[in-house]
Every structure is written in C-alpha cells, then in structure tokens.
Specification:
212 residues; alpha+beta; 5 helices
Length: 212
Amino acid sequence: MSNVIDEFELQALSVSSSLLEDAVRIVLVVFLASLAAALLSRLMRRIEQKMTSKRSDPDSVGRVATAYRNGLIFGRIVIWSVAGVTLLSIMGLSIAHLLTAAGVAGIAAGFAAQSLVKDYFSGFIILLEGQLRVDDIVEIGGHIGVVEEITLRSVRLRDYYGKVIFMPCGNITNVVNKTMEYSRSVIDVGIAYREKDRRGVGHYAQRCLADG
C-alpha cells in the first residue's frame, strides 16, 4: 500500500513540476514577445523621427508617417504569430496537425476570403505607389475627406462634417488626391449689384490675401 502511495506522490510531483515548468515557459514567451514589440515600437519611432528630421515638405512627412504605422503593424503581427506558435507547442499541441488542418480549412475559407486578400493586395499597391498619405485630402468612391489612417486592409477618411468613413482597399477603383505636391483653392464670392465691381472685388481680394 505504501508503494502505491509513494508512486502516486511521485507522479503528482512530476505532473506539478511539468505544469510549473510549462507555466514558466509560457510567461517567458509572453514576456519576450511583449519586450520585442516594445523594442520594435521604439526602434520604428526613432527611425521615423530621423527620417522626418531630414524632410521639410508635408508630402514626404506624410509618407514617412504612413510607412511607420504599417511597418509597426506588420512587425507586431510577425512577433505575436511566432509567439502564438511557440505557445501552442509548449501546451503540447502538434503544430504539424494544426498546419494540416489549417491547409484543408484554408482551401474552403479561401473562396470566402477572396475579398480580404484583394483588400490586402490593393492596400500594398496603394502604399507602394504612394497614391495616398496621411493628412491628404482625397475623393474616393464619391466621399471627400482627410486621410486619417492607411492600413493594408482599409483607408479611414474623415469628411467635412466630422463623419468617419472606412473604405476597403479592394473597393478603391480610382483616387482623386486634391493635395498631392500642390493644391489650388477656388473661392466663389458673391457681390451685390449695388456695389461697384472694382471696389467690391478689391476689398474681398485684400481680405483673402490677409487671411493667407
């Protein structure tokens, strides 16, 4: 009877030590992933500041800000994907079986995710060609607004009424960028018929020049 109890205690100690070891490894992986994400964010921020300091035109600054945001998002996805695979292996889940299941499920989900793949591919092309930058005033699909954020998935606009518009990159067929390199303002000024044209036009022209 004592041998059975001793064997049971040994098994319990072995299981508890194994669980403790797995818990320590899980905490270590999460800590390292968080540390890597923080270091990546700091590194990308320094690179952005260094590149921004060498540029004075708003177009280049907006392009650097866009590249910084998307580079940071991509880097975080890579870090946490590697951490997730490592955690699965620590918990005893076979990655090979998961990859096989994911491959079979991917074939079925691929047909449903065609629009998502199209969005990411179109977003990559938009960023590569520099069609849009943060703070640009653009017209996309009949919506006019300021570009607040550009990702591989979508473009976020804010129109003149303060409404936020999300445009999937796959649905963007043409882009009218109103502030690329330079912009021009057209102002319609109404003048009463009783006013003299020369005096009225001169007055409003001076006001416009004074307001910048």
